[in-house]
Amino acid sequence: MVYENPDGVRIGLEIHIQLNKLKTKMFCGCSTDYHNAAPNTHTCPVCLGLPGALPVLNKKVVEAAIKVGLALEGEIAEETQFHRKNYFYPDLPKGYQITQYDFPIVSNGKIVIEGEDGEHTVGITRAHMEEDPGKLVHIGSIEKSKGVLIDYNRSGVSLIETVTEPDMRSPKEARRFLDKFRNILEYLDVFDGNLEGAMRVDANVSVHWGTRVEVKNISSHKGVERALLYEIMRQKNVIRRGGKVSQETRHFDEGRGVTLSMRTKEEAEDYRYFREPDLMPMRITDWIPAVKETLPELPDAKRTRFIEQYGITDMHAKSLTSKIMLADFYEGVCAKGVDPKIAATWTADVFLGELNYRDLAISSYDGEKIGFIHAKDPRIKNSIKVSDMVELVNLFAEGKISDRAAVEVIRTMLDTAEEKTPSQIIEEKGLFKAEDDLVTKAVAETIAENEAAVQDYLGGTEKSLNFLVGQVMKKTKGTADAKTARDLIIKELKG
Amino acid sequence: MITKEDVEHIGWLARIEISEQETVEYMEKLNSVLGYFGQLDELPTKDVTPTYHVAEIYNVFRDDVVEECLPQEVVLANTEHKQDGAFRVPKIG
Question: Highest taxon of the source (chain B) (predicted)?
Fold first, then answer.
């Protein structure tokens, strides 16, 4: 199957990621641990742009940029340097942003995503280093703002901006690209995507291979898909009415789910880029072998290995490697000698599914337990131990608990902060699998009490069997194994 | 040559209000400066590599080590325009 791209959609992305795993900012020793701090407590003359202050580049920023470049299979520049991008806005205390211009550190990379019609390659035009501006908070709403408060704690934090080719053909592909990109960055350990403002996206989009429109200010993956769906619909409507899409910059209003025109008089040439005289150029290609050594096994390679090493399905391998912390947790569980296939089901399908259902995101793994945090309310957090998952998988594998009971154990572990082992939960809730004679008794009772359903089933209505199994489960309070109950009923009725 | 429109645009980029009279004045001054630097165009530089730094130094880095920041009251000491620990500025149009 080849994707026809009926609307001629082309999407390119510009993604800013914060190197928030580094201890200090890009050009000064101020700590990057400012997320719960009072405003303007993590600043110094350099990141406040005070006269006479001189920036000195954090070596780790360059290493991180090389890592990203290698992971994206890009080229690392022989010589690279910084420029000043000049514009006046209060989030930028110096009046310019230190960024890279015509000599970016990384160029010509790629990421292979699961596209509309199978594997699809998205080209990476470039990736470069730059500093984050400060944060502005409007007093009141943006429209009726009475003034603006500026917090420079974020000013000078290291960013990597990655620019893609316009290779994505649908909002879904754009979202998949971002998921994959974020996954790779987390593998590289340069980035914690759970922190506020860690990833910001601008998107270029056009339909029918026409004029492109830039949509700015998208802060989440879901936001990207929504913003693009809206913008594609808007452009198609303009064309349908006989109009022309004009080249412009639009702003995504997350609350209303619409894009709005932003009048701007500034063009690229107005930024008056020139070489940053305060910073020396860099020749860092001789670092590449050493940085290469620090590169972890990347998601695609890990996925292939999981299939071979653990004999699990591609679906499970894909899901387990979608987060490095989840992959490590799974391997931690398997290392304890459990059946890797059963462990994959309970980790990838049930555990991950229950997390998603609760809007919980995996946030840590320390070799003993995997931690997760609520996507919208970071105060809600919990964890599950490797040893708990091992115990659960073994209890299930040995046939001591039913699958329903195992799901119940996982739910209980997610929903309560108390540290209880699966055995304790099973004990307390009476989830141990019912003895066979108990099930046999429940089957006999069920058949005796539900004559109509029995007749229907014997008459060929398969649905009635499910009803009868349900009755047995009810009588045994869910402790019976559904398959055993089913087999027993069939045996009883059909011999 | 710099025109009156160029001066107005540069003024806008710098968020500076420039009067009609100043516009003409700055246009003349800027053209004089540009003309002066224009003399450089007469030199043969075709085979000369551009110099961006007089010292041929590469790779100046620091380690990722946390240093002390300024206290908030020191950061805000030079402004009267503050609120809740932040700088306060007019709404930006």
Answer: Archaea
